[in-house]
Amino acid sequence: MKKGHAASIHYSLRTAFLGFLRCTHPYMMEAREKLLKVLRSMNAGEAADQVVCQVAKMLKAAECATHEARISRDDFSSIEPPISGDLTRKKVMVQDYDGPTSMDETPLKRIRYNLDSSLAQSAQLAVENQDDVTLDGFSSKVSLTDRDPTPAKQMIGLIGALLAEGERGAESLEILVSKIQPELMADIVIANMKHLPT
After folding, report:
1. CB under 8 Å, gap of 24 or more: what pairs does 88-94 form?
2. Of 69, 71, 89, 125, which has the maximum CB count within 10 A?
3. What is the pLDDT of residues 151-169, one digit of tens each?
């Protein structure tokens, strides 16, 4: 073998082994020590150590992201729909930040949107943009004669508005229905029983 070819092969093997070292598959994680020994014998120990540090940082960042996603999902699932009051007047909550106030050091503030406010806003838009849409012969709007509609009537109106959105409102409707408390769901069913055929 010529000297140029040997160096090229050596470099290709080194690059391939470093690539394998970057892999986070469980089988490759088990072979990590063997790869490190081979790379050190090829005088690539420093590069291998850098790759190991990079992979460790990647895994830690992925773990943190997973943890944050789990926390935000838990926060999202703990939100319950209101049973009284105006659904369209929910406020956006901004987390406070007590750190430095200079422009260079201030991280972006996280904004937590309340599930109810986003659902109510989309439902309100649907109600404003529709002309008395009927589903199965029944109006999706809450009667305008009710000055103070009950929570069940408010939820019926919200569900009707989401149904009127079609595909766009399907996911929001699914989330909303899964969060309705059993007592409120019973009130909704009882309120809609008057629409059953006799």
Report:
1. 88/120, 88/121, 88/124, 90/114, 90/116, 90/117, 90/120, 91/117, 92/117
2. 125
3. 888 888 888 888 888 888 8
